[in-house]
């Protein structure tokens, strides 16, 4: 009789051993935690590494959650979280490991909300983008404000992305309306790309992310684009993107679901004990425009928005950069609802598929005019359709005219109302008709690439896009 209980004890033992412990996980333990989660939840997870490791050859591991791991499915937005881009800012790294365990456990406990989230979203968690910096910072006792911030080439990874802000600002000045996927327009790199940056760029360019957040430490605030000021002013210049309202709402979604990020009465963060200028961002709802705080070039957040369809914000998760180990679990409890609420934001706005009689249309352009107020206002940032002709257009509640267009087709516009409290984006599909079915030459109808209007100037510069994308795009993610 006893023998028949053995498998039960064995199974019980495996589950217990996979229980998550709140502590600082080193670079060897990190992939083991992800593997544990994968073993508990093999059907809804996949562990993989980005195309390139860090300078010191540490793989950049990702765990993915989806009901169909490894596969993009139309109508299912993709979301990512990136932790530990600054090696000495460590909370995001542990929160990602904790979140991975939590998503898996709740899924297995049949938590209705988590099941709905995973069945409708593809979620990627990169706990550490800078494992070398983490090691240096940890070896130094995790106390210093700067040691371990950079990668092993002493480069700040959050300054190492191509500066596409400069390009979009230049187009604005010239009245050119081309406003998305600007990597094509890059003519020079300010600095060589670090391996960690390259790996993340390839990832960003190859997965159709809709929503993203990067995790830092040193303050408590959700920061949204642009990070770079238009004038070059180093501080206090609000630098609105065309999606300013949407970004504010995304940042507020995190801040207001956090224990006290949005609290006006908490203390501000001090850089040193005699620092009396500590400002509490909670007084402004726990959010800030990036450049209104301080301006930076080459950040990952603006790169996501200007090179791809992804909307990324930057989370400063607390005053302490190297969080005390004994505070990790408490910080998880303070961030848990916010981490989930933010992922749900991928399900706001409108989404759909653009097709013609013969199938999906890739790279169709989705442009939006806000018709909520008395004056229609174009949102000058277009989204493009992906491999299945699918698009995801994050928007705030209101009324919009959405247009699908592609050279060679007649554009189609539809009016839509985005309601409050969405848990699923409004579906708006488009069927386009080729102009060739009517006329041989569509160019006489004023369809220009990138929404250029007739007579508008176009900058002609030798683009290094081909050079960059050749090296970036034709790599596939390598499996762990
Ligand atoms: C994974 O899916 C298979 C087939 O549907 C099922 O038999 C199995 O129980 C699932 N495993 C877990 C851990 O959910
Ligand atoms: C690079 O890594 C090595 C080995 O861990 C370390 O000794 C060295 O200080 C690091 N250099 C920088 C600039 O981080
Ligand atoms: C559209 O306009 C309304 C009213 O001005 C505003 O509340 C809303 O946030 C705008 N939407 C976007 C996405 O800018
Ligand atoms: Zn940082």
Automatic annotation (TrEMBL):
This is Jg15105 protein. The gene is jg15105. Belongs to the peptidase M14 family. Keywords: Carboxypeptidase, Glycoprotein, Hydrolase, Metal-binding, Metalloprotease, Protease, Secreted, Signal, Zinc. The keyword Transmembrane does not apply. GO terms for cellular component: extracellular space. GO terms for biological process: peptide metabolic process; protein processing. The active site is at residue 316. It is found in: Secreted. PANTHER family: CARBOXYPEPTIDASE E, PROTEASE M14 CARBOXYPEPTIDASE. Its main location: secreted. It comes from the Eukaryota. Coiled coil: none annotated. PROSITE patterns: CARBOXYPEPT_ZN_1, CARBOXYPEPT_ZN_2, PEPTIDASE_M14. Its cofactor is Zn(2+). GO terms for molecular function: metallocarboxypeptidase activity; zinc ion binding. CDD domains: M14_CP_N-E_like, Peptidase_M14NE-CP-C_like.
